[in-house]
Amino acid sequence: MVNLSAKRRSIYFRGYTTAISGLAVNRPDDNFASPTGTKDLQRLPRLGAKLDRSPVFFPGTQLRHRIREALLKGACKAAGGQLPLKDHFMLIQGVAIGEMAKELSSVSMAGIVEREGGLRSVNPLISLGGFWKHAGSLGVNDWIPVDSDQQVYYLHSKMRAMPHKRNEELVDLLSDDDVDKLKRIINEDSEIARKVREIEEEIKQVKKRYATASSIEKKQLGDQLNRLEEIKSGIKSEKEGPTETLVRPVEGYEAICPGTVMKSGIDITRANDLDLGFVLYALKQISKRPYVGAHAADGKGEFALDWEVKTWSDDLEDPITLGRVKVGLLDFEIIPENGLSTLQDALEKAQEAFVDPGKYGLDFTAFNPQTAVA
Predict the structure, then answer these.
(1) Which of 21, 74, 95, 277 has the lowest tally of Cβ within 10 angstroms?
(2) Three-state SS across the chain?
(3) Closest Cα to residue 53, out of 62, 61, 43?
(4) Can you give the pTM of this predicted structure?
(5) How far is Cα of residue 330 from the mean position of the Cα atoms in its chain?
(6) Residues of the chain falling short of pLDDT 70
(7) DSSP label of 146
(8) DSSP 143
């Protein structure tokens, strides 16, 4: 029997994430220029230098955000449906705003030893996520492709098209005046695109010269670049249709290939049964729509998890497996092992706590570690 009510333990979820669809993120600091794309190409983060050949990974922070959002919804449920914005920021991001920011900024954590019956017991949600000077107990690992020696990502290219040329039935839904207007826009779009390409080619050549120019020449080339940018803006602003040309390539993005298997996991430090239960509750809620990252409009982001859950503390001779947890689209499963119902019991207790937090002495709006007492 593993009693999490009587003794806190570190819990380890370890296993694999499978990319059901492509997985992409939009984090500008991961971008870099290379022969495969400009610095505006949305890149996957790299293990090591920002180079095409460096192995990619998927940031675990994307799942961490989903877990905290699910727990916020649970806290709102416990409060009758809604919580103030200040509580949203604390529970999702661990960031204080308004009067709460003033209150917490005056709290000194110097010499503070966290009490067993303190904030971590009163508000397990903020304990899991943490906030300024109050470390979170939930750690989420990055997702590392198992076959890191092979390229496990692809470049998703995009092209903006003219919908009324692609589907002529749409033209029948326009008035005669709008059909004439559409024809003008299409003709104009082609001509404007040609002019803009010519200007952009000039800009490209000037920038090449700028790299090796003297200080005086750089001033002249800088003025020339400004004039060319003004000309380009002027050409676009004269359009009857949208400022940008309608039919044009759009900067794409990198995505992890569907079917890619990645090592993944989460840790809960010094967890009791409610801490474990709240994480399981969040994973269950995520299974309603297990998507992370960017470009959901392109069908990106779906994933599945298969984790073994273990613990090992001083009162155990060996590590013990508590069970397995599986997360997929509209599918959540706890598979007990060693005859233990620890995982299911913890989940049920967390579900009860969101219905009646007072029963367990919880307050999901408590954020001051100096005043929180269980």
Answers:
(1) 95
(2) CCCCCCCCEEEEEEEEEEECCCECCCCHHHCCCECCECCCCECCCECCCCCCCCCECECCHHHHHHHHHHHHHHHHHHCCCCCCHHHHHHHHHCCCCHHHHHHHHCCCCCCCCCCCCCHHHHCHHHHHHCECCECCCEEECCEEECCCCCCCEEEEEEEECCHHHHCHHHHHHCCHHHHHHHHHHHHHHHHHHHHHHHHHHHHHHHHHHHHCCCHHHHHHHHHHHHHHHHHHHHHHHCCCCCCCCCCEEEEEEEEECCCCEEEEEEEEEEECHHHHHHHHHHHHHHCCCCECCCCHHHCCCEEEEEEEEEECCCCCCCCEEEEEEEEECCEEEEEECCCCCHHHHHHHHHHHHHHCHHHHCCCCCCCCCCCCCC
(3) 43
(4) 0.82
(5) 20
(6) 1, 109-117, 158-160, 239-250, 373-374
(7) S
(8) B
Look at residue 249 in the predicted model and tell me its pLDDT: 61
Closest CA to 325 of 343, 300, 303: 343
Residue by residue, DSSP assigns 191-244 as: HHHHHHHHHHHHHHHHHHHHHT--HHHHHHHHHHHHHHHHHHHHHHHT-SS-SS
Q: Which of 30, 66, 16, 18 is nearest to 256 (CA)?
A: 18
Phi, psi of 206 (to 5 degrees): -65, -40
Q: In the numeric block, which tokens belong to residue 127?
A: 């304990």
**Bridge partners of 335?**
324
Return the residue matching tokens 């500008």: 28
The maximal CA–CA distance of the chain, rounded, in angstroms, is 82
Phi and psi at residue 265, in whole multiples of 5°? 170, 170
Q: Which of 8, 67, 69, 87 is nearest to 363 (CA)?
A: 87
Q: Which amino acid makes up residue 61?
A: T
Return the H-helix or E-strand segment holding 114.
none
Q: Cα-atom radius of gyration of the chain, to the nearest Å?
A: 27
